[in-house]
Amino acid sequence: MKNKKIGIFDSGIGGLSILIELLKILPNEDYLFYEDSINNPYGEKSEEELFDITSNIVDYLISNDCKIIVIACNTATTSCMKKLREKYKEIIFVGTVPAIKVAYDNNYKDTILLATPYTIKSTRVEELIHDYKNNDQNIYLVSGKNLANLIDNNDQESINTLLKEILLHYKEKADSIVLGCTHYPLIADNIKNILPNCEILDGSVGVAKEVLHQLELNNIKNNSITRGNIIIKNTKSDELVTRSYEILEDMLK
């Protein structure tokens, strides 16, 4: 068990933002990252479609010796994680939720939550806001629309156009922005260009720490001193796999 892989899946390349944080604290683990770009964006799928899609991915990851599975997607986490835990009782799942608690714990007054349309409307986001928001704090819910797909396609011109359209209005009023989709940290510089005075918050570090906690709790952490292997599979194209390895290499410098 200790030599098995950590499985990660997302609706595209966005899960790289979590993988990079995992590599910082668990460099000796083996990883299998499943990028489901062909079904991107998940936010436009029904719950039934998403459960079928994610179940097939989990089957694939289990068949490839994954000991723990990270759902590196806010939409899939909010929609499917509970049902996946019920279906695969022997598998440890770690999900992803927007870092709303981080914003409130650090006393930011005017926070943007940038997320997919599905996540923005989800019950889970309502619960997070209800649980952590103070009366003197504001949160602005902003839909990223097709942003994840544009990031997968590396369409920088369209990314910048869309970001200006949805974020420029908040330039003078917001002090922080929660990136509620794992794709969005990959364009943090683009966001910073539009909102230079906003602190960028994402939950990737917290997810990585929870994976470490679960590995130790279940005594399945790989304590080898040898650096682990990283396998990336993309359902759409080998070119996206090549790009993902290049992004990883650049982010690890």
Question: How does this model look, in words?
Answer:
The protein is α/β, with parallel strands linked by helices. Helices cover 45% and strands 18% of the residues. It is built from 11 helices and 9 strands. Helix 3 (74-87) links the parallel strand 3 (66-71) and strand 4 (92-94). The mean pLDDT is 92.
Series of H and E elements: EHEHEHEHEHHEHHEHEHEH
Number of helices: 11
Q: Specify the overall morphology.
A: globular
Mean of residue pLDDT values: 92
Helix-strand category:
alpha/beta
Main beta sheet, described? 5 strands, parallel
Low-confidence stretches: none
Number of strands: 9
Q: What is Rg?
A: 18 Å
Main sheet: which strands, in order across? 4-3-1-2-9
The proportion of strand residues reads: 15-25%
Distance from N terminus to C terminus (CA atoms, Å) equals: 31 Å
Approximate helicity band: 40-55%
Question: Secondary structure elements and their pairing?
Answer:
Blueprint: E1 5-10, H1 16-25, E2 30-35, H2 47-63, E3 66-71, H3 74-87, E4 92-94, H4 100-105, E5 110-115, H5 117-121, H6 123-132, E6 138-143, H7 147-152, H8 156-167, E7 176-179, H9 188-194, E8 199-201, H10 204-217, E9 230-234, H11 238-251
Parallel strand pairs: 1-2, 1-3, 2-9, 3-4, 5-6, 5-7, 7-8
Helix pairs in contact: 1-10, 2-3
